AMP-dependent synthetase/ligase domain-containing protein (Actinorhabdospora filicis), 405 residues
Amino acid sequence: MSGFSSGFPGARDIARDILNRLRSVPDLADRYTDVVTLDSLEDLVHVPVMQRDDINVALAHLKPRAREGATWMFQSGGTTGSPKLGFAPTGLYMAEVHQQWKPIGPDDLFVNGWSAGKLWGGHYLVAAYADLTGCTGVPLGSIGKHEYDDWFGFFIERGVTAIGGSPSGLRALFGYARENGIKLPELRSVLWLGEAWHPQLDADIPAVAPNARRWGLYGSTETWVLGTNTPDCPDDTWHLLPSQLAHVGADQLIDFTSLKPHGLNPVLRYQTGDAGEWVDCACGAEGRALRLLGRRDGVVKFRSVGIDVDAMIADVGSWPGVSRAQLRMNEFADRLPTLELLVCPAREATRDLPDRLHEHVLATTFALRDVLRTDPAGFKVVLVDEPVSNERTGKTADLIVRRVQ
Ligand SMILES: [Zn+2]
């Protein structure tokens, strides 16, 4: 057994089709010359893994189009000023998700709290899901603190039963509600996707909405939704969709093959950067579930934005006036994390270096400015004499995570 199997209808032919499309991309063809054919899915073991850049190279050449309706473009991660794109047809493949995952139904009043626009997928993905449930939807988007009171008033008056957002957005909302004694007794379901669950929500949600439980989606803009979980599953454990074939390889890195008929992104053994292992889920559902073990590619999530630490430090470190740069993430029990770029200035550093670096990082890190809109102090550039080193090992890491009590 090579670890590749799927009961999805037409799986092998769909994988073959993706392989043929990838072979037609001039810049990728060489990688696939040794892969003669896929007699069965087991032969995927001979197919080289893809990284995000490979998918972007393929998409730039293939320019995929949906067979029906519109083709939608979304930003697919990356720490760069120019967005890398992923594609999906109208509906964003959510019919399959709806078959497997039912946190809301026709009687729900559902608030979609993912930020909208700017190529972000979450808002539209969950809107497509809501269409299938027959619920009543409220397209809220992301809101600022000064708007919270008005909106909570609306939620209570209308009897909102479900709300969804990124864990960072939910932390801000539920943290505020808890602090201010706001109660949402009719809330049943909290939908989340975009970053790991945060344990603070396990304390804040019951204080605000004692009847609410969390329901998660896991995926990426390259693969779209990979898996779902329910309140009875651990928050890091996922039940894959039938069309998603996962394989746990060396160093526990997971690669995914997307077997959607006519899928637009050519996802064939694509490594998202997540590591994982197969487990039996505590919810008791049949079949194995995928438990995530964190990332292995240097990308950290800051308020739902993926930051490529190596790329950012290399970029900032090449600036005149910078002798060493380091990123520090401060985590708090009761509020959102903050990010600091620690910079040891070189002799030629000018006085405006921190301001220019601040603007540069905001301008070149996709969506960072957007998640800081209501809290500009969440990212700072700080001049320091020495980088922070581990006193025991003497090592100086590019990223330090500090838990502030
Ligand atoms: Zn489960």
User: Anything to note?
Assistant: Residues 229-230, 233, 237, 239, 281, 283, 285, 289 surround zinc ion (CB under 6 Å). Residues 144 and 251 are 41 Å apart (CA to CA).
